[in-house]
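Continuing the batch. This is chain 6 of the set; chains 1 through 5 are on the previous pages. Same settings as before, nothing changed between runs. Recording input and output for traceability.
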Amino acid sequence: MDRKEERDLIERAIAGERTAAGDLIRAHQHSVYGYILRMCGRPEVAEDIVQEAFVRVLGNLHRFDFRFRFSTWLFTIARRLYMNAIAKNKPVYDTDFVGSMGGSKNVPESQIFNDERQTVQHDALQQALLALTEEQREIIILFHQLDWSISLIASHLEMPEGTIKSHLHRGRKRLRVMFKDKSRLAEQLAGVSK
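Output for chain 6:
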């Protein structure tokens, strides 16, 4: 959505138009949920935080400054709620929910294999992300999953661009090492089982 459409939706939502508020939520809920889910690793926590973020955003929509992007404001609110939730009680990370989602029982064997491979890859990525520092994880998610620019991330996190680049570099390097180590372990285990 371009800024003109976004501004129109926001102005209509401020005026009390429920459909505009609903459209605004629908336009952003998946990206905010994905961001918070990657940060905490728990769907129920992510749902609560995203819901609270939208409640706060809609309650304070009249305060929104149109000089900025709405998504940046929304992500800042969601991030602060996430940080507050962590401060209150550190979440327990659980990535097994993907495996429990299941699928259709009447799928070809290749589809079952693909589903399982995708689940394993998702779980491995989530575990690797959770092993990074908070800063590295957040920057990698914003940059790679949400396609934010370095300057936007720097502004959002109130850090210099050089610091963002350093965290991004170190986080990627650490992820490569973790995946290389997991690959070696899998090869060793496969050799033992033969």
